[in-house]
Design goal:
heterodimer; A: alpha/beta; six-stranded mixed β-sheet; three-stranded antiparallel β-sheet; 18 helices; globular; B: mainly alpha; MetI-like fold; about 0% strand
Chain lengths: ~425, ~325
């Protein structure tokens, strides 16, 4: 603290420093966002910001090819594609939407999350725009994006959750046909255990795969309409839900899961899919993407040993074996999207373009007529079951608002770990629903 | 010899302090100084305000609302409901417990271990530089890399840890390191220690090297045993460093996120969850931004109060010079 060379110079330097800092901050915050041209003229020059989550082949090049085709036909349109990995996408979209912004076209799974985005005015209603193509789409496929008679998204993929099983292991355990009822299913699990085979692979650490069991059991007991009514009434504590929990507990008590399942992730080299792919377990309850992930994470192909059956019926339940729970992927349109964005989405789901996506084997068709592009017999089974659904339910952790959906996942995970009773789960989900 | 060196140091320091200046010029100089200080602090203050103060205030504000973070500013004011809910939330109370356990384990095991290694590596032993480098290396890795690495090591079926136990005939010790709710927190502590003991070790090595050999020599000549030398000479002189290292470890543990997120996501069934993980879960996954903000506010308060009390009561001697010296100069 020895003082003072001439004051003005110091003041000057200080001001300079402050100025430079402000400039830096200004530069940071002014980046991004020049795509918000929402003018009505479809022929005006426009740029579409497109965020999708198919950040790896085989789908990555398909989207690119289709975008290139579209821009070649429409010289006034530019498409900026941002492929993002699934989890990173969710975090990034959350940040962007919290600032009141949204990309022009972005990945959505429909249901509660999309509802929140619509309520916040971030996603456009598409009912009128899609009226012309709606009949060309599989009706269960549109359901996740439709409520109160209005449509808010365009699907590109629809599938369902069912048991993927290893036929070789079933044969070793002396199980001749896939179980059709829950009692038969539990028997099959006992037989597999008896034969020294791990019956089920489960990603307990990821939580969401566990919730499929509880949802399916609830839906088999209540029927799809009963389940929808419970969600509308915000009452998940009826005897059926508790019974569903008890059935799940029966399964858990048989200790059917692989070693260390409580911490197991889904898609890592020692996660649920890899255990299944390596032939170390006989079944997994998963969606249409399961075979692809098995191959990717285990580096092996179960080939003809892999097959598929629907979630079994539950004795005395109101639901049918043909009621399905599933979902797929779709795109929502941001509030400031240019008119070409919607036109481009329609282009994506023409039967021809759907065939290109379906031919990769990682998407199941949403457009009628594109089924012929399915190459795999098992995927055909899944697609058939979807198109013949007697009732459809989107995965609960997508259908419900995030706070409720995550409570379902979390409570069911605790039930499977033995930390919660069936009654506790019913109570926790009801409370979350009433607070949402 | 050492003694006289210490004695001489004191008056030398006292001499540096200037005489208090005469009254009127003093005041003018004080004002000039103030302007200078403000101008030079301004850039840092602006950044600090924008990146630290503003978010804290904003989070405190949104923590009073039920808000999903979408569609404009929050509207549903609920007062302190988020906080009352927080303190009856089993998951959050679990977070507090985990933090307490991790802090206790760190102070009781990790830091003494780092100190022991540091003192060992200050001895004249062959290859001590190589060892220092080796032990410090994990600290340079990002937490994410460490997390991915140990997720593989602790993998239940293919992991290195269980494999090694098998090789040396200790199969019985093999367990589900990350999948057993009763074990996972200790596995996490192991990884934290692996990652951070090298950092504390380097701090201690530096502090130990700053202790003049003459003092140790003098103690030895006076007939102190190695233990007594450590207990009455080395340890007290390492005091400031140990205190700051405890401080850093505690604050780091309270804010622990990356490693847990990658390694276990807080699971299984929340057994390794930390406050930051719960906060992220509510803020970004469950879109309950109001509740998530409440968690962040509590996290901040805990760190803040701890920091104040720690500096006031534990580190007072270490920072006294800086504060009181300033006052002397006025």
């Amino acid at each position: 603290m020895t003082a003072s060379s001439p004051m003005p110079r110091r003041a000057f330097l200080g001001a300079l420093g402050a100025g430079a800092t402000m400039l830096g901050i200004g530069a940071c915050s002014s980046s991004g966002d020049d795509s918000g041209n929402s003018g009505g003229d479809p022929n005006a020059a426009q740029t579409i910001e497109w965020w999708h989550i198919q950040n790896t082949p085989p789908m990555l090049p398909v989207w690119q090819e289709l975008a290139d085709q579209y821009t070649a036909q429409h010289s006034n349109v530019k498409i900026n594609i941002t492929p993002i990995e699934n989890e990173a996408f969710k975090a990034r979209l959350t940040t962007v939407t919290q600032s009141g912004d949204a990309p022009d076209i972005f990945q959505t799974w429909g249901g509660g999350v999309l509802k929140q985005q619509v309520e916040a005015g971030l996603a456009k209603e598409l009912t009128g725009d899609l009226a012309s193509i709606k009949d060309s789409l599989v009706s269960t496929g549109v359901q996740p994006y439709e409520w109160d008679g209005k449509v808010y998204g365009v699907p590109y993929d629809i599938g369902m959750v069912g048991f993927w099983y290893n036929k070789k292991h079933f044969a070793t355990a002396g199980i001749s046909a896939p179980p059709a009822t829950w009692t038969e299913f539990l028997d099959a699990v006992r037989k597999l255990k008896g034969a020294g085979i791990t019956p089920i692979s489960l990603a307990g650490g990821a939580k969401w795969p566990g919730h499929y069991y509880w949802t399916y059991l609830s839906m088999r007991l209540l029927g799809p309409d009963g389940l929808k009514k419970a969600a509308a009434d915000k009452k998940f504590d009826s005897p059926e839900f508790i019974q569903a929990g008890r059935h799940l507990k029966e399964l858990v008590d048989l200790q059917p899961f692989q070693n260390g399942f409580l911490g197991a992730p889904f898609d890592t080299p020692d996660g649920e899919a890899a255990v299944m792919g390596n032939g170390q377990a006989a079944m997994e309850l998963q969606g249409q993407w399961a075979p692809a992930v098995q191959k990717e994470q285990s580096g092996k192909d179960l080939g003809a040993d892999l097959d598929w059956f629907s979630f079994p019926a539950v004795d005395g339940g109101k639901g049918k074996v043909t009621d399905t729970m599933g979902g797929g992927g779709g795109f929502a349109v941001g509030k400031d999207a240019p008119p070409a964005a919607i036109d481009f989405l329609k282009f994506l789901v023409t039967a021809d373009n759907q065939r290109k996506a379906v031919a990769t084997g990682s998407v199941l068709p949403i457009t009628k007529g594109a089924e012929d592009a399915i190459q795999d017999a098992r995927q055909k089974k899944v697609a058939d079951a979807v198109s013949k659904s007697t009732g459809f339910q989107l995965y609960l952790d997508q259908d419900y608002p995030p706070s409720v959906g995550q409570t379902v996942n979390d409570s069911v995970a605790q039930l499977i770990a033995g930390a919660m009773s069936p009654e506790d789960v019913a109570k926790a989900v009801t409370e979350a629903a009433q607070n949402a | 010899m050492t003694r006289s060196a210490v004695d001489e140091a004191k008056p030398a320091r006292a001499r540096e302090v200037p005489e208090p200046p005469a009254d009127s010029t003093g005041r003018r100089r004080f004002r000039t100084d103030l302007v200078t200080i403000v101008l030079f602090l301004l850039p840092a203050l602006v950044l600090f305000g924008l990146l630290v103060l503003a978010p804290i205030l904003l989070a405190s504000y949104t923590s009073l609302f039920k808000w999903n973070g979408l569609g404009g500013p929050p509207e549903d004011f609920i007062g302190l409901d988020n906080f009352t809910r927080l303190f009856s939330d089993k998951v959050f109370l679990g977070d507090l417990q985990h933090a307490a356990i991790l802090i206790a384990l760190t102070v009781v095991f990790q830091l003494p271990f780092a100190l022991a290694i540091a003192l060992l590596l200050c001895q004249r032993i062959r290859g001590r530089m190589a060892f220092r480098l080796l032990f410090f290396a994990p600290y340079v890795l990002s937490e994410v890399i460490a997390g991915v690495l140990f997720a593989m090591v602790f993998s239940p079926n293919r992991g290195l840890a269980n494999h090694l136990f098998g090789l040396v005939g200790l199969e019985d010790l093999a367990t589900n390191w990350l999948a057993d709710p009763a074990v996972v927190l200790y596995s996490l502590f192991f990884v934290i220690t692996w990652k951070y003991f090298g950092f504390h070790m380097i701090l201690y090595v530096a502090a130990r090297q700053a202790i003049p050999d003459e003092i140790i020599e003098a103690a030895t000549i006076d007939g102190a045993s190695p233990w007594e030398t450590f207990r009455y000479v080395t340890l007290p002189l390492l005091g400031p460093t140990i205190r700051i290292s405890i401080f850093l470890a505690v604050i780091g543990t309270i804010q622990l996120f990356d490693l847990v997120w990658v390694l276990t996501r807080g699971g299984p069934i929340h057994a390794s969850e930390t406050m930051a993980v719960t906060m992220f879960d509510f803020g970004f996954v469950r879109s309950q931004v109001g509740y998530g903000s409440a968690i962040s506010v509590v996290m901040f308060m805990i760190s803040f109060v701890f920091a104040l009390f720690y500096q006031r009561f534990v580190m007072r001697r270490d920072i006294e010079g800086a504060v009181t010296g300033m006052r002397d100069r006025r």
